[in-house]
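Deliverable D2.4 — example input (structure tokens):
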């Protein structure tokens, strides 16, 4: 047995692809002696008080960069808005992410209010990426973030 180089789950030592996260294993799978860290990043779309258009452009750039860098999980901080009803950046970011998911460009999108251990999509994500159990926003009902799993 060895550990997946991306998600850290235990896999068959001869496996060329992880059954949990579907990532290809490079090099000698036996060489992973400690739990692998998968690549994740956090992007604050509110930084610099952008317009909605600027925030959406940054979201798309960050997704492209994450794909290029083989990052599997991106947490977008878009805020909830000052009106208490959800801000324009939040709403438009979530619409854009839903659209990209429908095109098959994103694997999973989990809104912050659903990022808890009892939610089905989150349970599945935690099973594939156990290190997410230490994510600072897990179980916080944070409507100002959205997690994205890339292929």
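Example output (designed residues):
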């Amino acid at each position: 047995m060895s550990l997946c180089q991306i998600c850290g789950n235990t896999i068959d030592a001869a496996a060329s692809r992880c059954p949990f996260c579907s990532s290809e294993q490079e090099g000698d799978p036996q060489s992973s002696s400690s739990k692998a860290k998968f690549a994740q990043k956090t992007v604050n779309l509110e930084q610099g008080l952008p317009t909605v258009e600027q925030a959406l452009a940054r979201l798309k750039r960050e997704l492209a960069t994450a794909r290029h860098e083989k990052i599997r999980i991106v947490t977008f901080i878009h805020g909830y808005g000052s009106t208490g009803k959800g801000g324009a950046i939040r709403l438009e970011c979530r619409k854009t992410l839903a659209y990209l998911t429908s095109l098959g460009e994103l694997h999973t999108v989990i809104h912050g209010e659903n990022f808890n251990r009892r939610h089905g999509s989150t349970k599945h994500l935690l099973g594939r990426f156990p290190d997410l159990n230490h994510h600072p926003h897990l179980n916080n009902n944070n409507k100002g973030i959205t997690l994205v799993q890339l292929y």
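The chain has two domains: 1-37, 40-149.
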